[in-house]
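Posting for a labmate who doesn't have an account.
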Amino acid sequence: WRFQKTYPDTKIIVSGVTKARKMEASSPVQYELGWIASRRSLLVLTNTHLICSDWIISLDAISVAILLELTGGYVLKISTVSGEHYQFGLNKNSAWETQSILPFTKQKGSIEYSIQSLIVRAIGVVSLSWYLYQAISAADLATTILMSIGIALIGIPLLLYVLDKLRQKGKN
């Protein structure tokens, strides 16, 4: 609504909330600390531009567009002819897939973990495990349950990631 009020003559093809970053060309899609400071805004595709706050990217200036389909959403990777590279994290919305203004290559994707992210998660699991031990020792049921849930939410994805990497190394 606010965008349409600011640009009344612009036709919105599709829009959605996004976390966005300018990246290096070879940057993989991954959980990493840089996303903490990412731009949180609305990504708007019009018939002539891709707009995210003050980033206004002409569709004619886009050299490569890849829509990575993830379990819970998408990552739109954009490269421009001037050498800028962007990643836009988007919620699931089939309008991004069915629009015909921005030609893109659609791929199945997954998000990798950076080394920093793995370290932070491991520290989290160790810390929560210590608090779980303290809660069990003090017979504090509520804290025991909360720490168990925390360990499961952080530890299970971490364990699955490590096991998947080990499985991949076994194939090579």
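Reply:
Got it, the structure tokens are right above this. Helices lie at 2-6, 94-98, 115-137, 141-171.
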